[in-house]
Write a structure and sequence with these properties.
CATH architecture of the largest domain: Single Sheet
Strand content: 15-25%
GO molecular function: hydrolase activity, acting on carbon-nitrogen (but not peptide) bonds, in linear amides
Protein name: ACY2 Aspartoacylase
CATH class of the largest domain: Mainly Beta
Distance between the termini: 28 Å
CATH topology of the largest domain: N-terminal domain of TfIIb
Radius of gyration: 20 Å
Organism: Calyptomena viridis (Lesser green broadbill)
Pfam family, one: AstE_AspA_hybrid
Strand order of the largest sheet: 2-3-4
Length: 138
């Protein structure tokens, strides 16, 4: 499956549709070249590995007491460092990020995740290496 976003639920956006078409075409091109016996050289790629889901701050009744800080909003896949603003309470207090390493938040403030108690997902940037690849079918 391919999920390309972000976009609000029920909205069809031409730019997102174009990105989806391009990525599906690249996937199909790869399958065709692989089936034709093309050998792909070893490679390394940076990816984001999910570490944990982070909920909004809540009171003892389970009600949200802070929103995503404006400096974090719309910053998916951007580095978040110790001390950076994370949440903003309804009283205007900044809640900073406390962590031992830089993380890369994603799905920040997505409406579909409110009911799942998820403000964002913390990811870490890692490198994956692949050996050469070639079809064994002649």
């Amino acid at each position: 499956g391919v999920e390309v976003g972000p976009q609000p639920q029920g909205v069809a956006r031409a730019d997102i549709l174009d990105k989806m078409r391009k990525i599906v075409k690249h996937g199909l091109d790869f399958v065709q070249l692989f089936n034709e016996g093309k050998e792909f050289p070893p490679c390394t790629i940076e990816v984001f590995k999910i570490m944990e889901k982070v909920d909004y701050p809540r009171n003892k009744n389970g009600e949200i007491t802070a929103v995503i800080h404006p400096k974090l909003q719309d910053q998916d896949w951007q580095p978040l460092n110790n001390g950076d603003p994370l949440f903003l309470t309804l009283d205007g207090e900044v809640i900073p990020y406390h962590g031992n390493s830089t993380v890369y938040p994603t799905f920040i403030n997505e409406a579909a995740y409110y009911e799942k108690k998820q403000a964002f997902v913390k990811t870490e940037k890692i490198k994956l290496s692949a050996k050469h690849l070639r079809s064994s079918v002649p």
